[in-house]
Amino acid sequence: DQQVKQNSPSLSVQEGRISILNCDYTNSMFDYFLWYKKYPAEGPTFLISISSIKDKNEDGRFTVFLNKSAKHLSLHIVPSQPGDSAVYFCAASAGSNYKLTFGKGTLLTVNP
Amino acid sequence: NAGVTQTPKFQVLKTGQSMTLQCAQDMNHNSMYWYRQDPGMGLRLIYYSASEGTTDKGEVPNGYNVSRLNKREFSLRLESAAPSQTSVYFCASRQTDSNQPQHFGDGTRLSIL
């Protein structure tokens, strides 16, 4: 029973355009959401996060939107760059131990 | 500037052998975590340690044991390795202040024949 779902295994965009990665969750107790980026043979790198008291968080080219009623969050990358090509994982946690539940990831390819 | 260091990076074992995966962090973080990642899957939590001296099971703890040796180090032990434990293992740590992210090591790639 997947509590965090990333329904698109892959996404391809042109350099300079917007990349939108989506994530859905089922556990209403989740109160903290994160996006990680992962290159091959490396560990996940933290990108951006949002707590459930907010609906938007922005950091440079990266913006995360949270729609609690729909149990949906998205990551927008504008403008996309070839160096953004990686697997992006959505993760969520509930409570103070911050144990993360991950989605399966979306492979983003940004074409020059 | 090491962050989270995992050793070894690669290992091949035979079924039934035992092995300890090592993890150390130099960020003075209180909490540490062990995850596994299988092909086409997200990371799944094996065990975690909220603070020095405490450990708790995660989503997939069967077949594993952990030791929080001190604040810096958190090891994962496979007592009798099975082919189903072939995976990439990631260690992570975080500061216990609210809404701080976990920081990951580069993983240990473990194959069990």
Question: Please, could you describe this protein's structure?
Answer:
The complex is a heterodimer of chains A (112) and B (113). By secondary structure, chain A is mainly β. Chain A contains no helices and eleven strands. Chain A has strands at residues 4-5, 10-14, 19-25, 32-38, 45-51, 56-59, 62-67, 72-77, 86-93, 101-102, 106-111. In chain A, the strands form two sheets. In chain A, strands 2, 4, 5, 9, 10 and 11 form a six-stranded mixed β-sheet that branches. In chain A, strands 1-3-8-7-6 form a five-stranded antiparallel β-sheet, with no helix packed on it. Chain A is globular and about 40 Å long. The model of chain A has no long low-confidence stretch (mean pLDDT 95). Chain B is mainly β. Chain B contains no helices and eleven strands. In chain B, strands 2, 4, 5, 6, 9, 10 and 11 form a seven-stranded mixed β-sheet that branches. In chain B, strands 1-3-8-7 form a four-stranded antiparallel β-sheet, with no helix packed on it. Chain B is globular, with a radius of gyration of 13 Å. The mean pLDDT of chain B is 94. The chains are: A mainly beta (112), B mainly beta (113).
Main sheet makeup of chain A: 6 strands, mixed
Structural class of chain A: mainly beta
**What is the N-to-C succession of helices and strands of chain A?**
EEEEEEEEEEE
Question: Helix- and strand-based class of chain B?
Answer: mainly beta
Main sheet of chain B, how many strands, which sense, barrel? 7 strands, mixed
Total helix count of chain A?
Answer: 0
Helix content of chain A: under 10%
% residues in beta strands of chain A: over 45%
Q: Which range does the strand content of chain B fall in?
A: over 45%
Termini Cα gap of chain A: 38 Å
DSSP helical segment count of chain B: 0
- In whole angstroms, how far apart are the ends of chain B? 35 Å
Shape of chain B: globular
Q: How much helicity do the residues of chain B have?
A: under 10%
Unreliable residue stretches of chain B: none
Report the average pLDDT across residues of chain A: 95
Mean pLDDT of chain B: 94
